[in-house]
TrEMBL record:
Entry superkingdom: Bacteria
Pfam families referenced in this protein's UniProt entry, alphabetically: SAVED (PF18145)
Domain SMODS-associated and fused to various effectors intervals: 329-504
The protein's name in its UniProt record: SMODS-associated and fused to various effectors domain-containing protein
InterPro entries: SAVED (IPR040836)
Location of the region described as Disordered in the Swiss-Prot/TrEMBL record: 14-34
């Protein structure tokens, strides 16, 4: 069935489209229509890539002829390699991309997905057009497959790992199976894998967030209603048989649908604890994943080498300088990162420099210049430490960090006079910040509370500990001025304390 939608009105005044639970089993037509809408969502993001002034993409093509079976979404580059995407949807995202899925043939005369990809690669390569092929899907990759499990998260490619297989290994045998299935040489399979990017696990929610960020980057409205209108534009192109879509075509539809809101923005992508499947969307992209301890996003909390915090800080400074050199004053911040990084990025893109920042959270843009919506006064308490003349600040919007922060400050002998604890009036909870207007108000109130404490009892340095939405940390850092030099800490998980991450001149 179609994805069930509803529109909820938030206290911030902005609507957000949310997905309701399905009311029954999926019908064949429902699965097909859901897949079409997923493909149109991917197509709208591609249209936004064409529209951004920093890209060299000439046009978008949808279900175009002459490119084999990777025709769902094609981006034609003015100077680089063209991108060809095959979009695959499943109503059950736990269905995997595995050997069976890639090699299954419905009939003896039909082609498997792997065969379709291979023949498309040969067709495009023969035509003298070295392709970038993408398998875009909400399916997950089979972690138990000896070959597919070698996918490089930095490039979405199986090479160079597939070229370096140990003879006789399970992965080596799998590669030979693919060659036999494709009736080609092993070398041809490896050559195809130089071009084939696997992009698994792209959920509707993550792709909607991506599309909304790209809309904001193009100076368009970025709310859920605007996104749905954008997806509808792609649907109409398909129904009308429009195959080649130029920048002028996209601009005309944007104006017709009244989606224009502001000037184009930059996209700053911070890949701290996980990589983004579409780093090419960004004006500037940073990738720190390999610097972190552990192997999964939930467990990545600090770099292996503490000196890398300084390197990451320098990376942020360099990224901000690049954005400013290009004249951008509005920046969309994307990526998987933790509290301290959100805060530091906001601080380096400071409000006092005339910069605005925004971040899409659960389908809603949180912008630093969103109209303020009043919030109740914060709860404020002061815990004496009496070990120096610094001030520790524990902000607990979603959890109460005070016991853990107090224990950490004492155990590490930080030179702290007192710990200022700030929480919402109703206490910490995961719904404490309803939307962008409240986030702006809380950012102002939190900063002002720290300023007031420093006015009454000056301190040489602030030690900042955060527990709340990343978007709020971004907006708080953005407004963190006329305070004191600040060290912001990263939470290492329950019972494991904190680590000093970044230093802010404020």
């Amino acid at each position: 069935m179609d994805l069930p939608l509803s529109v909820t009105q938030f206290a911030s005044g902005g609507p957000m489209t949310v997905l309701r639970p399905a009311t029954g089993p999926n019908s064949r037509s429902g699965v097909r229509r859901s897949g079409d809408r997923y493909q149109d969502l991917i197509g709208w993001s591609a249209a936004m890539r064409v529209m951004h002034p920093t890209n060299d993409i000439q046009r978008l093509e949808i279900e175009v002829n002459g490119v084999g079976n990777i025709d769902d979404v094609v981006l034609r580059s003015a100077s680089g390699r063209h991108h060809y995407a095959q979009v695959k949807w499943t109503t059950n995202p736990t269905n995997m991309i595995d050997h069976s899925y890639l090699t299954k043939q419905d009939t003896k005369k039909s082609k498997s997905l792997l065969q379709k990809l291979f023949h498309s690669w040969k067709k495009l390569t023969t035509a003298g057009d070295p392709p970038v092929m993408e398998l875009v899907t909400n399916r997950v990759l089979d972690p138990g497959d000896p070959l597919l499990s070698l996918l490089d998260g930095r490039t979405d490619l199986l090479n160079p790992a597939a070229r370096l297989l140990t003879p006789g290994s399970a992965a080596d045998a799998r590669l030979n199976e693919w060659a036999e299935h494709l009736s080609c040489t092993r070398g041809e399979v490896l050559d195809m894998l130089d071009s084939l990017h696997f992009k698994p696990g792209l959920s509707i929610s993550s792709e909607r967030d991506r599309a909304q960020s790209l809309m904001l980057a193009n100076g368009l409205l970025g709310d859920a209603d605007a996104l749905d209108r954008g997806i509808g534009i792609v649907t109409d192109w398909v129904l009308e048989g429009r195959r080649e879509i130029t920048l002028d075509d996209i601009t005309m539809e944007v104006e017709r649908m009244r989606l224009r809101s502001d000037d184009p923005r930059a996209v700053l992508l911070i890949q701290a604890i996980d990589r983004d499947p579409n780093p090419g969307d960004a004006t500037v992209a940073l990738d720190w994943v390999d610097l972190y301890e552990e192997d999964s996003p939930p467990t990545r909390r600090q770099p292996r080498d503490p000196a890398d915090w300084a390197a990451m800080s320098n990376d942020i400074d360099d990224a901000v300088a690049r954005l400013r050199s290009q004249g951008f004053k509005d920046v969309v911040v994307r990526g998987a990162m933790r509290q301290a990084t959100f805060f530091t990025v906001g601080a380096r893109l400071a409000q006092v420099t005339g910069t605005n920042v925004s971040h899409v959270r659960f389908g809603m843009p949180w912008a630093s210049n969103a109209p303020r919506i009043a919030v109740p006064d914060l709860q404020r308490s002061l815990v004496p430490i009496d070990a120096g003349n610094h001030l520790a600040v524990a902000i607990g919007m979603t959890d109460d960090p005070v016991p853990a922060v107090t224990a950490f400050v004492k155990a590490t002998n930080l030179p702290v006079r007192s710990l200022l604890a700030l929480t919402p009036a109703e206490g910490p909870n995961d719904q404490s910040v309803a939307g962008p207007g409240q986030a702006v108000a809380y950012a102002q109130s939190l900063r002002n509370a720290v300023r007031a404490q420093l006015e009454s009892t000056p301190a040489e340095r602030v030690h900042l500990f955060l527990a709340g939405p990343g978007g709020l940390a971004l907006l708080l850092g953005h407004r963190w001025n006329r305070v004191a030099p600040t060290t912001v800490y990263e939470d290492l998980g329950s019972g494991h304390g904190y680590t000093a991450a970044f230093s802010i001149d404020a």
